[in-house]
Design a protein that fits this description.
With about 140 residues, the protein is of the alpha/beta class. It has a single domain (about 5-140), classed as CBS-domain (Roll), CATH 3.10.580. It is built from six helices and six strands; from the N terminus they run αβαββααβαββα. The protein has helices at about 5-10, 25-35, 55-60, 70-75, 90-100, 120-140, and strands spanning about 15-20, 40-45, 45-50, 85, 105-110, 110-115. The chain is elongated and about 65 Å long. The two termini are about 30 Å apart.
Length: about 140
């Protein structure tokens, strides 16, 4: 069964973070520049949570709050399940589905190593299936 570590080997994206004391506006600029929908939130060098576009829509826009004067730590989500890089992709998918999450942080030896998204899982699954199909076609052509 493929693990998150296997998926991360194929993922080239650098982990993009934001300080918990940054304004929501600054966090949105980082997300826009990197074309991503989620940031890992750090307090110094320590993981404290995640900030997503969904958090922005629900906790800033719908509540009429200011992006300039609200800080990331005021609206970030900190009670997100954490994955271990040795967890299977199936376990990750199950957690995402049950908790209706699009992103999960990945840890190895208690250290944050990356972020995994539903899109990462879909891409990895498609690429793996394409490879398997190609191998099966090669095998069938040899017979």
């Amino acid at each position: 069964m493929p693990t998150i570590k296997d998926l991360l080997r194929s993922k080239n994206r650098k982990l993009i973070t934001v300080s918990s004391s940054s304004s929501i506006f600054d966090a949105l600029k980082i997300m826009a520049e990197a074309n991503i929908g989620c940031l890992i939130v750090l307090d110094g060098d320590h993981y404290v949570g995640m900030f997503t576009e969904r958090d922005y829509a629900r906790k800033i826009v719908l509540e009429g709050r200011s992006s300039d004067s609200t800080t990331v730590n005021e609206i970030m989500v900190s009670d997100i399940p954490m994955l271990n890089s040795d967890d299977t992709i199936e376990v990750c998918s199950k957690i995402m589905t049950e908790k209706t999450l699009r992103y999960l942080p990945v840890f190895e030896n208690s250290q944050l190593v990356n972020l995994i998204s539903q899109s990462d899982i879909i891409k990895y699954t498609i690429d793996t299936q394409k490879s398997l199909i190609a191998h099966l076609q090669d095998y069938m052509n040899l017979k």
